[in-house]
Protein backbone atom coordinates (compact mmCIF):
# COMPACT_ATOMS: atom_id res chain seq x y z
CA UNK A 1 0.00 0.00 0.00
CA UNK A 2 2.85 2.40 0.84
CA UNK A 3 4.40 1.89 -2.60
CA UNK A 4 1.01 2.43 -4.28
CA UNK A 5 0.53 5.73 -2.45
CA UNK A 6 4.05 6.97 -3.27
CA UNK A 7 3.65 6.05 -6.93
CA UNK A 8 0.24 7.75 -7.09
CA UNK A 9 1.64 10.93 -5.51
CA UNK A 10 4.34 11.00 -8.19
CA UNK A 11 2.14 10.05 -11.14
CA UNK A 12 -0.82 12.37 -10.48
CA UNK A 13 1.15 15.64 -10.85
CA UNK A 14 2.90 14.25 -13.95
CA UNK A 15 -0.44 13.34 -15.54
CA UNK A 16 -1.92 16.76 -14.79
CA UNK A 17 1.22 18.51 -16.07
CA UNK A 18 1.05 16.46 -19.27
CA UNK A 19 -2.61 17.34 -19.81
CA UNK A 20 -1.99 21.07 -19.46
CA UNK A 21 1.59 21.61 -20.63
CA UNK A 22 2.06 19.34 -23.64
CA UNK A 23 1.28 20.95 -27.02
CA UNK A 24 -1.45 19.18 -28.97
CA UNK A 25 0.90 17.16 -31.17
CA UNK A 26 2.99 16.21 -28.16
CA UNK A 27 -0.21 15.25 -26.35
CA UNK A 28 -1.22 13.09 -29.32
CA UNK A 29 2.14 11.30 -29.24
CA UNK A 30 1.85 10.71 -25.48
CA UNK A 31 -1.68 9.27 -25.73
CA UNK A 32 -0.69 7.15 -28.74
CA UNK A 33 2.23 5.75 -26.70
CA UNK A 34 -0.11 4.90 -23.81
CA UNK A 35 -2.47 3.25 -26.29
CA UNK A 36 0.35 1.14 -27.73
CA UNK A 37 1.39 -0.01 -24.26
CA UNK A 38 -2.25 -0.83 -23.58
CA UNK A 39 -2.36 -2.92 -26.77
CA UNK A 40 0.84 -4.72 -25.73
CA UNK A 41 -0.71 -5.64 -22.38
CA UNK A 42 -3.91 -6.68 -24.14
CA UNK A 43 -1.98 -9.35 -26.07
CA UNK A 44 -2.01 -11.41 -22.86
CA UNK A 45 -5.78 -11.68 -23.12
CA UNK A 46 -5.55 -13.09 -26.65
CA UNK A 47 -3.44 -15.99 -25.33
CA UNK A 48 -1.52 -16.11 -28.62
CA UNK A 49 1.70 -18.09 -29.01
CA UNK A 50 3.65 -14.90 -29.72
CA UNK A 51 2.70 -11.58 -28.13
CA UNK A 52 4.71 -9.73 -30.79
CA UNK A 53 2.67 -11.28 -33.59
CA UNK A 54 -0.52 -10.69 -31.60
CA UNK A 55 0.39 -6.99 -31.37
CA UNK A 56 0.57 -6.49 -35.17
CA UNK A 57 -3.22 -6.31 -35.87
CA UNK A 58 -3.71 -3.76 -33.10
CA UNK A 59 -0.83 -1.57 -34.31
CA UNK A 60 -2.27 -1.74 -37.82
CA UNK A 61 -5.75 -0.76 -36.57
CA UNK A 62 -4.33 2.18 -34.59
CA UNK A 63 -2.22 3.35 -37.55
CA UNK A 64 -5.22 3.11 -39.87
CA UNK A 65 -7.34 5.27 -37.57
CA UNK A 66 -4.60 7.90 -37.31
CA UNK A 67 -4.17 7.88 -41.10
CA UNK A 68 -7.86 8.00 -42.00
CA UNK A 69 -9.07 10.53 -39.42
CA UNK A 70 -7.90 14.15 -39.11
CA UNK A 71 -5.25 14.74 -36.43
CA UNK A 72 -4.40 18.42 -36.93
CA UNK A 73 -5.35 20.58 -33.97
CA UNK A 74 -7.79 22.82 -35.86
CA UNK A 75 -9.47 19.78 -37.42
CA UNK A 76 -9.91 18.20 -33.99
CA UNK A 77 -11.67 21.27 -32.60
CA UNK A 78 -14.76 20.33 -34.65
CA UNK A 79 -15.29 16.54 -34.54
CA UNK A 80 -15.85 15.09 -38.02
CA UNK A 81 -18.42 12.42 -38.87
CA UNK A 82 -15.62 9.87 -38.57
CA UNK A 83 -14.71 11.09 -35.10
CA UNK A 84 -18.35 10.99 -34.05
CA UNK A 85 -18.65 7.43 -35.35
CA UNK A 86 -15.62 6.35 -33.30
CA UNK A 87 -17.22 7.81 -30.17
CA UNK A 88 -20.55 6.15 -30.95
CA UNK A 89 -18.95 2.76 -31.58
CA UNK A 90 -16.89 3.11 -28.40
CA UNK A 91 -19.98 3.94 -26.34
CA UNK A 92 -21.93 1.01 -27.79
CA UNK A 93 -18.99 -1.29 -27.03
CA UNK A 94 -19.04 -0.31 -23.37
CA UNK A 95 -22.74 -1.04 -23.14
CA UNK A 96 -22.09 -4.50 -24.62
CA UNK A 97 -19.04 -5.04 -22.41
CA UNK A 98 -21.09 -4.09 -19.35
CA UNK A 99 -23.61 -6.75 -20.28
CA UNK A 100 -20.82 -9.31 -20.66
CA UNK A 101 -19.37 -8.54 -17.24
CA UNK A 102 -22.72 -8.51 -15.44
CA UNK A 103 -23.54 -11.96 -16.88
CA UNK A 104 -20.05 -13.44 -16.36
CA UNK A 105 -19.18 -16.35 -16.29
CA UNK A 106 -22.22 -17.35 -18.37
CA UNK A 107 -21.16 -14.93 -21.12
CA UNK A 108 -17.60 -16.26 -21.22
CA UNK A 109 -18.36 -18.98 -23.77
CA UNK A 110 -19.33 -16.28 -26.31
CA UNK A 111 -15.79 -14.93 -26.64
CA UNK A 112 -13.18 -16.84 -24.62
CA UNK A 113 -12.02 -19.10 -27.47
CA UNK A 114 -12.57 -16.57 -30.25
CA UNK A 115 -9.20 -14.96 -31.05
CA UNK A 116 -10.47 -12.41 -33.64
CA UNK A 117 -13.19 -11.30 -31.23
CA UNK A 118 -10.68 -10.72 -28.43
CA UNK A 119 -8.54 -8.63 -30.79
CA UNK A 120 -11.65 -6.64 -31.71
CA UNK A 121 -12.44 -6.08 -28.04
CA UNK A 122 -8.97 -4.56 -27.62
CA UNK A 123 -9.47 -2.20 -30.56
CA UNK A 124 -12.89 -1.14 -29.26
CA UNK A 125 -11.34 -0.44 -25.86
CA UNK A 126 -8.21 1.48 -26.83
CA UNK A 127 -8.94 3.33 -30.10
CA UNK A 128 -12.08 5.22 -28.95
CA UNK A 129 -10.18 6.00 -25.73
CA UNK A 130 -7.41 7.70 -27.73
CA UNK A 131 -9.74 9.71 -29.97
CA UNK A 132 -12.08 10.79 -27.18
CA UNK A 133 -9.19 12.26 -25.17
CA UNK A 134 -7.80 14.06 -28.23
CA UNK A 135 -11.19 15.52 -29.15
CA UNK A 136 -11.86 16.73 -25.62
CA UNK A 137 -8.36 18.21 -25.34
CA UNK A 138 -8.84 20.11 -28.62
CA UNK A 139 -12.29 21.50 -27.75
CA UNK A 140 -12.42 25.32 -28.02
CA UNK A 141 -8.62 25.31 -28.52
CA UNK A 142 -8.63 28.48 -30.62
CA UNK A 143 -10.55 30.47 -28.03
CA UNK A 144 -8.87 28.98 -24.96
CA UNK A 145 -5.98 26.55 -25.33
CA UNK A 146 -6.55 25.23 -21.79
CA UNK A 147 -10.33 24.70 -21.98
CA UNK A 148 -9.94 21.19 -23.40
CA UNK A 149 -7.30 20.38 -20.80
CA UNK A 150 -9.81 21.25 -18.09
CA UNK A 151 -12.36 18.97 -19.79
CA UNK A 152 -9.89 16.07 -19.76
CA UNK A 153 -9.04 16.71 -16.13
CA UNK A 154 -12.76 16.87 -15.28
CA UNK A 155 -13.26 13.33 -16.62
CA UNK A 156 -10.23 12.14 -14.66
CA UNK A 157 -11.58 13.74 -11.49
CA UNK A 158 -14.96 12.06 -12.00
CA UNK A 159 -13.31 8.66 -12.32
CA UNK A 160 -10.89 9.17 -9.44
CA UNK A 161 -13.66 10.46 -7.16
CA UNK A 162 -15.97 7.59 -8.12
CA UNK A 163 -13.21 5.08 -7.39
CA UNK A 164 -12.43 6.60 -3.99
CA UNK A 165 -16.07 7.08 -3.04
CA UNK A 166 -16.93 3.52 -4.06
CA UNK A 167 -14.01 2.14 -2.04
CA UNK A 168 -14.97 3.86 1.22
CA UNK A 169 -18.72 3.37 0.80
CA UNK A 170 -18.19 -0.28 -0.06
CA UNK A 171 -15.95 -0.79 2.95
CA UNK A 172 -18.49 0.84 5.26
CA UNK A 173 -21.82 -0.27 3.85
CA UNK A 174 -21.20 -2.81 1.08
CA UNK A 175 -23.41 -5.92 1.15
CA UNK A 176 -24.85 -6.60 -2.32
CA UNK A 177 -22.26 -7.71 -4.86
CA UNK A 178 -22.27 -6.19 -8.36
CA UNK A 179 -20.48 -9.04 -10.10
CA UNK A 180 -19.12 -11.54 -7.56
CA UNK A 181 -17.71 -13.84 -10.26
CA UNK A 182 -15.46 -11.02 -11.51
CA UNK A 183 -14.71 -8.86 -8.47
CA UNK A 184 -16.20 -9.89 -5.11
CA UNK A 185 -15.26 -6.53 -3.56
CA UNK A 186 -17.45 -4.39 -5.83
CA UNK A 187 -20.86 -3.68 -4.29
CA UNK A 188 -24.04 -1.81 -5.21
CA UNK A 189 -23.62 0.31 -2.09
CA UNK A 190 -20.08 1.17 -3.17
CA UNK A 191 -21.36 2.18 -6.60
CA UNK A 192 -23.96 4.49 -5.06
CA UNK A 193 -21.31 6.03 -2.81
CA UNK A 194 -19.04 6.50 -5.81
CA UNK A 195 -21.79 8.18 -7.83
CA UNK A 196 -22.62 10.63 -5.04
CA UNK A 197 -18.96 11.47 -4.38
CA UNK A 198 -18.14 11.92 -8.07
CA UNK A 199 -21.19 14.11 -8.73
CA UNK A 200 -20.16 16.46 -5.91
CA UNK A 201 -16.53 16.59 -7.09
CA UNK A 202 -17.56 16.94 -10.74
CA UNK A 203 -20.07 19.73 -10.02
CA UNK A 204 -17.49 21.71 -8.05
CA UNK A 205 -14.80 21.13 -10.69
CA UNK A 206 -17.09 22.05 -13.61
CA UNK A 207 -17.99 25.30 -11.87
CA UNK A 208 -14.37 26.07 -11.01
CA UNK A 209 -13.19 25.24 -14.55
CA UNK A 210 -16.14 27.09 -16.13
CA UNK A 211 -17.07 24.04 -18.20
CA UNK A 212 -20.14 24.67 -20.36
CA UNK A 213 -23.09 22.26 -20.46
CA UNK A 214 -26.48 22.81 -22.10
CA UNK A 215 -28.17 22.59 -18.71
CA UNK A 216 -27.70 21.32 -15.18
CA UNK A 217 -29.79 18.27 -16.06
CA UNK A 218 -27.56 17.55 -19.06
CA UNK A 219 -24.45 17.87 -16.91
CA UNK A 220 -25.82 15.49 -14.27
CA UNK A 221 -26.90 12.99 -16.92
CA UNK A 222 -23.43 13.01 -18.49
CA UNK A 223 -21.80 12.69 -15.07
CA UNK A 224 -23.95 9.74 -13.98
CA UNK A 225 -23.49 7.86 -17.26
CA UNK A 226 -19.73 8.44 -17.16
CA UNK A 227 -19.42 7.36 -13.53
CA UNK A 228 -21.43 4.16 -13.93
CA UNK A 229 -19.61 3.13 -17.11
CA UNK A 230 -16.23 3.86 -15.47
CA UNK A 231 -17.01 1.44 -12.63
CA UNK A 232 -18.12 -1.20 -15.13
CA UNK A 233 -14.99 -0.53 -17.22
CA UNK A 234 -12.87 -1.51 -14.23
CA UNK A 235 -14.87 -4.74 -13.98
CA UNK A 236 -14.47 -5.47 -17.71
CA UNK A 237 -10.69 -5.55 -17.50
CA UNK A 238 -10.95 -7.69 -14.36
CA UNK A 239 -13.18 -10.07 -16.34
CA UNK A 240 -10.60 -10.47 -19.11
CA UNK A 241 -7.79 -10.95 -16.57
CA UNK A 242 -9.77 -13.55 -14.66
CA UNK A 243 -10.64 -15.44 -17.84
CA UNK A 244 -6.93 -15.43 -18.83
CA UNK A 245 -5.63 -16.31 -15.36
CA UNK A 246 -3.73 -13.01 -15.01
CA UNK A 247 -3.42 -10.98 -11.80
CA UNK A 248 -2.05 -7.73 -13.25
CA UNK A 249 -1.91 -6.55 -16.86
CA UNK A 250 1.78 -5.62 -16.42
CA UNK A 251 4.48 -4.39 -14.05
CA UNK A 252 5.32 -1.02 -15.60
CA UNK A 253 3.92 1.00 -12.66
CA UNK A 254 5.38 0.03 -9.25
CA UNK A 255 2.64 -1.03 -6.85
CA UNK A 256 -0.08 -0.53 -9.45
CA UNK A 257 0.55 -3.17 -12.11
CA UNK A 258 0.28 -2.28 -15.78
CA UNK A 259 -1.09 0.61 -17.80
CA UNK A 260 -4.42 -1.14 -18.30
CA UNK A 261 -4.72 -1.63 -14.54
CA UNK A 262 -4.54 2.16 -14.13
CA UNK A 263 -6.62 3.33 -17.09
CA UNK A 264 -9.30 0.60 -17.21
CA UNK A 265 -11.99 2.94 -15.84
CA UNK A 266 -10.76 5.82 -18.01
CA UNK A 267 -10.94 3.76 -21.21
CA UNK A 268 -14.66 3.43 -20.61
CA UNK A 269 -15.32 6.90 -19.18
CA UNK A 270 -13.71 9.04 -21.88
CA UNK A 271 -15.60 7.74 -24.96
CA UNK A 272 -18.96 7.88 -23.19
CA UNK A 273 -18.36 11.36 -21.75
CA UNK A 274 -17.09 12.67 -25.10
CA UNK A 275 -19.96 11.15 -27.08
CA UNK A 276 -22.58 12.69 -24.79
CA UNK A 277 -20.72 16.00 -24.50
CA UNK A 278 -20.47 16.51 -28.26
CA UNK A 279 -24.08 15.47 -28.99
Automatic annotation (TrEMBL):
E.C. code: 2.7.7.41
**Compartments where located:** Cell membrane
Q: Which Gene Ontology molecular function entries are recorded, alphabetically?
A: phosphatidate cytidylyltransferase activity
Q: How does it sit in the membrane?
A: Multi-pass membrane protein
Pfam family membership, one:
CTP_transf_1
Give an example GO biological process.
Answer: CDP-diacylglycerol biosynthetic process
Q: Which GO terms describe its cellular component?
A: plasma membrane
List the InterPro entries: PC_trans
Residues crossing the lipid bilayer are 27-45, 52-73, 85-105, 117-136, 148-169, 190-206, 218-236
Q: What reaction does this enzyme carry out catalytically?
A: a 1,2-diacyl-sn-glycero-3-phosphate + CTP + H(+) = a CDP-1,2-diacyl-sn-glycerol + diphosphate
UniProt entry keywords in alphabetical sequence: Cell membrane, Lipid biosynthesis, Lipid metabolism, Membrane, Nucleotidyltransferase, Phospholipid biosynthesis, Phospholipid metabolism, Transferase, Transmembrane, Transmembrane helix
Q: State the source organism's domain of life.
A: Bacteria
Enzyme class per UniProt? transferase
Cite the annotated pathway: Phospholipid metabolism; CDP-diacylglycerol biosynthesis; CDP-diacylglycerol from sn-glycerol 3-phosphate: step 3/3; Lipid metabolism
Which family does the entry's similarity section mention?
A: Belongs to the CDS family.
Q: What is this protein called?
A: Phosphatidate cytidylyltransferase
